[in-house]
Specification:
- With 104 residues, the chain is an all-alpha fold.
- It has one domain.
- Helix 2 runs antiparallel to helix 3.
- The protein starts with 5 loop residues before the first helix and ends with a helix.
Length: 104
C-alpha cells in the first residue's frame, strides 16, 4: 500500500482551496473611516458657506444690516449638522450590517 492516506490528502486539498477563496480583512477600513470623516466636515462647511452666501446676497440686495447673513449662516449650520448626523447614521448602519455579515 502507498504511504499517503487518501482522506488526509483530500483534507489538505480542501484546506488549501479554502485559503485561496478566503476573504482577506480589509486594510482600507482606516481610509474609509477617514473618507467618512472628511465627508462630514465638507457637509458642515458646505452648509455654513451656502447659508452665509445666501444671507450675504440678501443683505446686499435689500441693503440691510447683516441680519440675513446671521440668520442664514445659523440655518446653514443647522442644515450642515443635520446632514452630518444623517451620514453618521448611514455609516453606523453600514458598520452594524457589516458586523452581522461577519458572524455568518
Amino acid at each position: 500500500m502507498g504511504d499517503s492516506d487518501p482522506l488526509n490528502d483530500l483534507g489538505k486539498k480542501i484546506e488549501s482551496a479554502k485559503k485561496i477563496h478566503e476573504i482577506e480583512p480589509k486594510s482600507e477600513d482606516h481610509h474609509s473611516g477617514l473618507q467618512h470623516a472628511w465627508r462630514m466636515v465638507i457637509e458642515l462647511v458646505g452648509g455654513l458657506a451656502i447659508g452665509f452666501g445666501l444671507g450675504y446676497g440678501l443683505d446686499v440686495f435689500f441693503e440691510t444690516l447683516p441680519i440675513f447673513m446671521i440668520i442664514f449662516t445659523l440655518l446653514g449650520f443647522v442644515a450642515g449638522v443635520r446632514t452630518m448626523l444623517a451620514t453618521a447614521r448611514e455609516v453606523q448602519k453600514d458598520h452594524i450590517s457589516g458586523l452581522s455579515e461577519k458572524d455568518r
